[in-house]
Write a structure and sequence with these properties.
By secondary structure, this protein is an alpha+beta fold. The strands form 4 sheets. Strands 6-3-10 form a 3-stranded antiparallel sheet, with no helix packed on it. A hairpin with a 6-residue loop joins β7 and β8. Helices cover about 25% and strands about 15% of the residues.
Length: about 210
């Protein structure tokens, strides 16, 4: 027999997980299970989130890598990336592609050696190259090793004498919307209303914002 509440009782609906959040959680489960609950690049456990490795016309879970906060925020010059020596031998194509792309941004001999030793099948190697404007193009980096691209904003971390312009761009100057050409030493930006080359500022004078 159904029981009715007493007069004055308030019926409060149960809190339920919003549909978008629930769907995202359900999608993340296979990825978490595959990764064993740790970062697929370094085996860390802090701030784990799926990171898509595109472009690829394959199921969503298969083109994502579970990464920790450290891997998502660490510059290419950090010793943390020694972990890629292990990730490079993962049997998961998405992890292989992520490791391959990261190793390309690290100039150290160990990274070059690890990259050369990776064994990717043709489809995975094609995926690794996909989305890269020019896989053989030189990479321009700032003082922290971060990759610079056209449209980025940087700050000067040292005073920079500007040849032919009769002024010195001061430390802390913000340069918005730089342009990176085919020659990695030709980085152009506007300072004091003038378009100048920041060639001598790469990488020792620039910090990506």
């Amino acid at each position: 027999m159904a029981r009715w509440g007493r007069a004055g009782d308030v019926c409060r609906p149960q809190r339920r997980t919003p549909w978008p959040t629930l769907i995202e959680a359900l999608r993340a489960r296979p990825l978490t299970d595959r990764a064993g609950g740790v970062c697929e690049l370094c085996a860390g456990t802090d701030g784990l989130e799926p990171v898509e490795v595109g472009p690829a016309d394959i199921p969503q879970v298969d083109r994502a890598v579970l990464q920790c906060a450290t891997c998502r925020e660490t510059a290419p010059t950090d010793p943390h990336w020694f972990c890629l020596q292990g990730a490079a031998w993962s049997e998961v194509p998405a992890v292989q592609v992520a490791a391959w792309r990261l190793l390309r941004t690290i100039p150290d001999p160990w990274a070059v050696e690890t990259l050369e030793g990776m064994m990717l099948d043709d489809a995975t190697l094609q995926w690794a190259h996909a989305g890269l404007a020019d896989p053989d193009a030189p990479v321009v980096r700032d003082s922290n090793g971060n990759t610079l691209a056209t449209g980025d904003s940087v700050t000067l971390i040292k005073d920079l004498p500007v040849k032919g312009a009769n002024f010195t761009a001061k430390r802390g100057t913000l340069v918005k919307g730089i342009r990176v050409g085919d020659d990695p030493t030709h980085v152009e930006g506007r300072v004091n209303g003038q378009s100048i080359y920041l060639s001598s500022a790469v990488p020792g004078f620039l910090k990506k914002v």
